[in-house]
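Structure request: DNA repair protein RadA, Methylomonas paludis.
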Amino acid sequence: MAKKSKIAFVCSECGADYPGWSGQCNQCGAWNSIKELRLASAKSGRDTSGYAGLRSEVHVLADVNLTRTERISTGLSEFDRVLGGGIVKGSVVLIGGAPGAGKSTILLQAIAHIAQHQAVLYVSGEESLQQIAERAQRLGLPTAGIKMLAETSVQHICSILDEEQPQVVIIDSIQVMYTADSESAPGSVSQVRESASYLTQYAKRSGVSFFLVGHVTKDQSLAGPMTLSHIVDAQVVLSSTDDARFRVLRADKNRFGSVGELGFFAMESTGLKEVKNPSAMFLSRAEKPAPGSVVTVLWEGTRPLLVEIQALVTESQYGNPRRLAVGLDQNRLAMLLAVLSRHGGIFTGTDEIYTNVVGGIKVSETSSDLAIVIGVVSSLRDRIVPYDTVFFGELGLNGEIRPVANGHARLNEAAKHGFKRAVIPKSNKPKDVIKDLRVYPVTNIQEALAVLEEL
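Returned structure:
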């Protein structure tokens, strides 16, 4: 008698496993997302040697070959920056983004450049080859060296790869791929997981580099199981800013480079163009100065980035004043307001406070604490902060201003963009004088507020 397939219940949104069906996923909170899946038996033809596709052998760490990893340039320096310097041979990169973000466009531009030097293959499971050809023509890209394939079976794709021997392959998209080893429908959690695992094993054995295009869910996270993020070597997300002309490429995971690295692009009729000076992109401030507007210097990946933080303090019209943070951590805003009240002597408990990071950047580090507090005080007192002044520093619970990483590089970036004054933690005070930049080192919130009165 044939052995029955194992049945599993998996959330299609986050990949959480359950012993039985349930109406709501306890992990991500999604409703009606738990699906019944039939898993392939262990006797299937799938290679079970692991994602690396290598035999299980014991090695001495000192004997491992440490030769420099070969990289392939995409022709876009901002894309190469996010990848850690280019495409690593045999790597698997998952690129996600909302519909219309430009995933297929940036990959088509990259593969058109690579095709001039190496063999490439573009595998489309969603668009027709005619649609892709029309896009390439619209972008004015050279297409002579780009080989195309319309296929969704990973086994058939890999057999064709054995014949064509390309160096870089694009799979658009991983959600429509399927493997015969899984009995579930294409797009399901198990199919996405098994297809990605199959392609990753092939990449490690053959040295072929893969780009997997991934869809996103309604909360802008990558669709499919969480295992997908663990399988791939790098995971990057392409998103748009508040200004629809610009795109931001962020590395959420990278085994060959910095996590959190950002690449900036402008969407034009001829495709995505690199933005060499992203700080200027986010500093398009109003001509007339206004209270609550403060500039800070963030550190994104391997470079500084100047952004404007806006704060608005107004009287509450109701009994429960609101606290709203856009681009900032809501809980951190509440903590900073508590420190400002306790150690700065400025009470805002009865006021509504709104904060925003201009340009749609998501602030994930603590160096913007001082700028947020100064913005709130500026709006509360209706006092304009000079346009030529930047603030950065972490604010502790005792009111102290803590140092941040790469302080000297942040100051150089501010000076390069014409800023004349900088209020920073005392521990970040540079040893050498920076030309045309006056530095105000502070140790606590009281000193920072005193400097604000002097400006």
